[in-house]
Amino acid sequence: MKKCGRCKEYLEENLFSFHKGRLQSFCKPCQSEYAKEYRKRKPEVLINNLRKWRKKNVSERVVTEDQKLRDEFRAKIRRLLRTDSDKVDTIFGYSPNQLKEYLISNFGGLPEDDFCLKYIIPLREFDLTDIKEWQRAGALTNIKIVQKNS
Q1: Does one domain contain both 20 and 83?
Q2: Do residues 77 and 96 make contact, with C-beta atoms less than 8 angstroms apart?
Q3: Gap between the Cα atoms of 37 and 109, Å rounded
Q4: 132 is in which domain, residue-wise?
Q5: What are phi and psi of 149, to 5 degrees?
Q6: Which of 81, 104, 105 is nearest to 92 (CA)?
Q7: Which of 15, 37, 95, 134 could form a disulfide with 11 if both were Cys (CB 3.0 to 4.6 A apart)?
């Protein structure tokens, strides 16, 4: 049994995290609550720490223009799924509601945590520098829902 320094309750030791080989002074629930409060209280400190870390840990990964275009394409489709607007997307030619209706009628629902969107013809097969190719790649008949594990 160990006494939490925050809630002052005696708790089992498995409810405390280890840090540098020793048990923390706050229990896990109190530590979690303290961290949330700290993030709200000092967002600028966290942002500065993240900037320093990113500057120190620069990725050596090279991203090609094709990869950027595919990422942008996927982001636009995800945005369509997240919005409730009836506005027609000028790139793909269908509204968010039309996309949702298509997915529901053909796959029984919308993608959730364990499902994701896939493309029948992979995006790498399209020249995404051309708007007509965006429309072909984003055609409703080219989209399907699959489980993430497959």
Answers
A1: no
A2: no
A3: 37
A4: 65-147
A5: -70, -15
A6: 81
A7: 15
